[in-house]
Amino acid sequence: MTFLTKLLNRVLIPLGIILLISNGLLGQDPDYQKQLDEYENKKKNIEAENKQKLEEIEHQKQENVVKHALNEGNTYIKKQQWQKALDAYNLAIQYDPNFAKAYYGKGLALRRLNKYNEALQAYQKATQLDPLYSQAYLSMGMLYRQLHQFDYAVTACLSAIQADSTAYKAYYELGTVYNKQKKYKKAAEAFQKVTKIKPKYYKAYNALGVALSNTGETDKAITAFQKAIETKPEKDEPYYRLAALYNKLGRHQEALDNALKSLKYKSKKNGKSAFEAGQAYERMGQHQNAIKYYTMAGNQDRKWKSSADYQIEMINRKLKK
């Protein structure tokens, strides 16, 4: 074999191998590129899935922190630990600035801490985040009433009712505010609405009776007080209300019966019912019994002492004549 032949063999054979390999690869290039693309897509999908899973885990952790903080705040509210409740609600808000319930809880805590303006701001934020948050509107209305800002209280109560037409407590609060404004007819309408939504709500019947008494609708007032008694026979307040109303109407025996029932269910610190019993006895001419119950009224409640002492003095003057 000549030198030239050997040289050609050394160059051409490796070159041929390279060409064969190259031709083989080039012949498979479409499949190879497809596999490569599929691999890259799978890789991207896996990376996206992993990122999403990490975000979900992080979001779940955040949700757990928020829920735990809210539950903690609610527990502290029940325990009347207002500052701790506030701290818990603030933590929830820190992790979720759009959490309406946390702002509502914050408002409750701030109100108890006598930070009324801040409480109102928290309630307002809650209703901004959730325009149908009836309870937040109601709490806002109650705070406005406490601050004697009755027009704002009415607006808040009406917003609560608009958000939830079955919110009987909002109607009750609305009636209470109207009573404060001496708008007794509107108050009666609100309390009547409560009794339709919640037929067993004792407080609504009692409040309705008061409003109707102030409008001069005594028969309807008596019916309302009797309904309150039917709903909660052990409550002393409607018996007292009936006693006062019957005395005013000159129906003294009925006044006495109800005053004594009120005293039966609340024997202590019930000077107002003892006074009505004294009034009934006095007007029926039973002076010694009248003195007995006037004395009881003065002893049980300092608010009634001066009135009771005056009535006793008047009776003693009559008896000396």
Spatial shape = elongated
Extract low-pLDDT stretches. 15-27
The CATH architecture name of the domain at 243-321 reads: Alpha Horseshoe
- Distance N terminus to C terminus? 167 Å
Number of H- or I-type helical stretches: 16
Structural class of the helices, strands and pairings?
Answer: mainly alpha
Biggest β-sheet description? none
| Helix content percent band | over 70%
- Portion of residues in beta strands equals under 5%
CATH class of the domain at 243-321: Mainly Alpha
For CATH, the homologous superfamily of the domain at 243-321 is named as Tetratricopeptide repeat domain
Structural Rg: 40 Å
Q: Give the tally of β-strands.
A: 0
CATH topology of the domain at 243-321: Serine Threonine Protein Phosphatase 5, Tetratricopeptide repeat
SSE layout:
Blueprint: H1 3-27, H2 29-78, H3 82-95, H4 100-112, H5 116-129, H6 134-146, H7 150-163, H8 168-180, H9 184-197, H10 202-214, H11 218-231, H12 237-249, H13 252-265, H14 271-283, H15 287-300, H16 302-320
Helix pairs in contact: 2-3, 2-4, 3-4, 4-5, 5-6, 6-7, 6-8, 7-8, 8-9, 9-10, 10-11, 10-12, 11-12, 12-13, 12-14, 13-14, 14-15, 14-16, 15-16
Task: Walk me through what this model shows.
This protein is an all-alpha fold and 321 residues long. It has a domain at 243-321: Serine Threonine Protein Phosphatase 5, Tetratricopeptide repeat (Alpha Horseshoe). Helix content is 84%, strand content 0%. It has 16 helices and no strands. It has helices at 3-27, 29-78, 82-95, 100-112, 116-129, 134-146, 150-163, 168-180, 184-197, 202-214, 218-231, 237-249, 252-265, 271-283, 287-300, 302-320. Helix 6 (134-146) runs antiparallel to helix 7, helix 10 runs antiparallel to helix 11 and helix 10 runs parallel beside helix 12. The longest helix has 50 residues, at 29-78. The radius of gyration is 40 Å and the shape is elongated. Residues 15-27 have low confidence and may be disordered.
